[in-house]
Amino acid sequence: MLMSFFTLFLLLAPTVDDFKKEMAPLQSAVDGLISSTGAQVLQRSRATYIEGYGVIVFVEIAFEPPQGIFSTPKRPEEVRSTIAQRRQDVREKFTTFVKQRIVTTNSIGSTESLAIVIHVLNTNPADVPNLPGQIQFTAKRDNPQQVAFREF
């Protein structure tokens, strides 16, 4: 009896093969979500599975392109307003995304987590000096509706 329970548990446990199948669609979804906010993906997302923790996805973005010599300069208020709106969009969209993906991603075990780590490049530090360098979204599979949000 105990042996059959153990075998069943092993069959239901997430595997590396599960993660390999889910990795590319997960990365594409993260990149697409970033792009849908108007922010730029500077370095495409990369997902990794850490046994005992779960899945972590890293991506590097810029909320606003740098003001260059060939573009029409924007007023600082306009840059701050655009970045604030995109930050809010990222927060709302990724909170919803993590809630949905944590329950549908087979490679995440019942006690494991999903984390999205967004590295932010501040391309306009004179206009937005207090922009965080990193934004994190984390949820555990056993409590998918509680998404932790942190900015550093």
Q: Can you describe this structure?
A:
It is a single chain. It contains 3 helices and 5 strands; from the N terminus they run H-H-E-E-H-E-E-E. The chain has 152 residues and is α+β, with helices and mostly antiparallel strands. The chain has one domain: GMP Synthetase, Chain A, domain 3. Strands 1-2-3-4-5 form a 5-stranded mixed β-sheet, with helices on one face.
- Approximate shape: elongated
Helical percent range? 40-55%
Number of DSSP helices?
Answer: 3
Low-confidence stretches: 5-12
> If you average the pLDDT, what whole number results?
90
The CATH C-level name is Alpha Beta
Strand order of the largest sheet: 1-2-3-4-5
Which quaternary structure do these chains form? single chain
Q: Kindly, what is the distance between the CA atoms of the first and last residues, rounded to a whole number of angstroms? A: 50 Å
Relevant terms:
152 residues; GMP Synthetase, Chain A, domain 3; five-stranded mixed β-sheet; alpha+beta; 40% helix; 5 strands
Q: Helix and strand layout, with pairings?
A:
Blueprint: H1 2-12, H2 16-36, E1 40-50, E2 54-62, H3 76-104, E3 113-120, E4 134-140, E5 143-151
Parallel strand pairs: 2-3
Antiparallel strand pairs: 1-2, 3-4, 4-5
Quick description:
The chain has 152 residues and is of the alpha+beta class. It has helices at residues 2-12, 16-36, 76-104, and strands at 40-50, 54-62, 113-120, 134-140, 143-151. The chain has one domain: GMP Synthetase, Chain A, domain 3, CATH 3.30.300.
